C-alpha cells in the first residue's frame, strides 16, 4: 500500500511539473491584487470584486488607510487558517459599519468561468483562481433565473481568503483569514474575497498557536496598483488547455474523491 501511494504522489508531481513547464498565464488587474509584505517574503492575493463587491471595496479602503500594517498573525491553526484582526484580538473592528453577508453571488451566463465537474445537480470550477460551486440548470434544462444566472458560492479551499465575523451573519468588518487547508464546511458561512496565488508557503510556515508564543507580523499591506515596481501578477489560465490537462491528471489520480479543492492554481510575479 505504501509503494502504491508513493507511486500516486510521484505521478501527481510529474503531472504538475509538466503543467508548470507549459503553463498558460493570465495577467491580473493590479487594482485587484493585494500584496502582504512579511519578514519571510511577499504574499499575493487575487481579489474578486465580482464575487463580493462590498467586502473587496472595504478591504481596499482599509489597506489604503494602513489598517493592516503591523498586525500580527495572531491565530495560526495548522492546515486550517491564519487570521489577522484589528488590535490583534478576536473580533477586532474598525469604526466603520459592519457589512451585510456576501456568502453567495449570481454567476451570469457570460461571466468568465471554467467548469471542471458536475456533481449531483451542481457544477464546480474556477473563476480566475477562485474555486466556485454553482447550482446547475434544473431538470427541464431551464436556467434558475430569467437572465440565465445561477446561485453560486466560493469553496474554502487552500489559499482562499475570507472576512471573519462574529455570531451574527452581518457582522464582518475588517478581520481577514487565509485558508492553509481545505474546509468546505464553512462554505456559505463567511464572505470570500480572493485567493492567495503566491506565498502560500509563507503562510504555512508561520509559528503556530492561538496566539503563537512569538507571532510573526505583517509589515505592510498594499494594492499592487499603488506599488511602484511591484511587478505584474499572473495566474495560471484556468480556461487554458494546459490547465485542463492538469485537471485531467488530478481527476485520474483522485477518482471518486475528486473535488475542485484538489486542483492548485499557480501564480507568478513578472517584471
Overview of the structural elements:
With about 270 residues, the protein is of the alpha+beta class. It has a single domain (about 30-265), classed as Cyclophilin-like (Cyclophilin, Beta Barrel). Helices cover about 20% and strands about 30% of the residues. It contains 4 helices and 16 strands. It has helices spanning about 1-20, 55-65, 200-205, 240-255; strands at about 25, 35-40, 40-45, 75, 80-85, 105, 115, 120-125, 130-135, 150-155, 160-165, 175-180, 190-200, 220-225, 230-235, 265-270. The strands form 3 sheets. An 8-stranded antiparallel beta sheet has the order 4-5-12-11-13-3-2-14. Strands 6-10-9-8-7 form a 5-stranded antiparallel beta sheet, with no helix packed on it. The relative contact order is 0.24.
CATH superfamily: Cyclophilin-like
Output the CATH class name. Answer: Mainly Beta
Beginning-to-end CA distance, first to last residue = 46 Å
Helix/strand-derived class? alpha+beta
Overall morphology: globular
Question: How many domains is the backbone divided into?
Answer: 1
Q: What CATH architecture would you give? A: Beta Barrel
Secondary structure tally: strands: 16
- Report the mean per-residue pLDDT as an integer: 91
Strand content: 25-35%
**Order of helix and strand elements from N to C terminus:** HEEEHEEEEEEEEEEHEEHE
Measured as a percent range, the helix fraction is 10-25%
Quick synopsis:
The protein is α+β, with helices and mostly antiparallel strands and 271 residues long. 19% of the residues lie in helices and 29% in strands.
Amino acid at each position: 500500500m505504501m509503494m502504491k501511494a508513493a507511486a500516486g504522489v510521484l505521478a501527481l508531481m510529474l503531472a504538475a511539473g509538466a503543467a508548470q513547464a507549459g503553463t498558460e498565464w493570465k495577467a491580473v488587474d493590479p487594482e485587484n491584487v493585494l500584496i502582504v509584505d512579511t519578514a519571510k517574503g511577499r504574499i499575493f492575493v487575487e481579489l474578486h470584486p465580482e464575487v463580493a463587491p462590498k467586502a473587496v471595496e472595504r478591504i481596499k479602503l482599509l489597506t489604503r488607510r494602513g489598517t493592516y500594517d503591523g498586525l500580527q498573525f495572531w491565530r495560526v491553526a495548522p492546515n486550517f487558517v491564519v487570521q489577522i484582526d484589528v488590535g490583534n484580538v478576536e473580533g477586532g473592528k474598525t469604526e466603520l459599519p459592519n457589512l451585510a453577508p456576501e456568502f453567495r453571488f449570481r454567476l451570469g451566463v457570460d461571466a468568465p468561468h471554467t467548469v471542471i465537474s458536475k456533481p449531483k445537480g451542481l457544477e464546480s470550477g474556477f473563476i480566475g483562481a477562485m474555486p466556485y460551486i454553482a447550482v446547475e440548470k434544473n431538470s427541464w434544462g431551464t436556467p434558475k433565473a430569467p437572465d440565465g444566472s445561477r446561485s453560486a458560492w466560493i469553496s474554502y479551499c487552500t489559499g482562499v481568503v475570507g472576512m471573519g465575523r462574529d455570531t451574527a451573519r452581518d457582522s464582518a468588518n475588517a478581520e481577514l483569514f487565509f485558508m492553509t487547508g481545505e474546509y468546505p464546511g464553512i462554505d456559505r458561512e463567511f464572505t470570500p474575497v480572493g485567493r492567495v496565488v503566491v506565498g502560500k508557503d509563507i503562510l504555512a510556515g508561520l509559528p503556530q498557536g492561538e496566539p503563537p508564543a512569538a507571532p510573526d507580523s505583517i509589515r505592510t499591506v498594499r494594492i499592487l496598483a499603488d506599488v511602484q515596481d511591484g511587478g505584474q501578477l499572473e495566474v495560471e489560465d484556468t480556461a487554458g488547455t494546459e490547465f485542463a490537462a492538469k485537471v485531467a491528471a488530478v481527476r485520474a489520480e483522485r477518482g471518486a474523491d475528486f473535488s475542485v479543492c484538489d486542483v492548485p492554481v499557480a501564480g507568478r510575479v513578472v517584471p
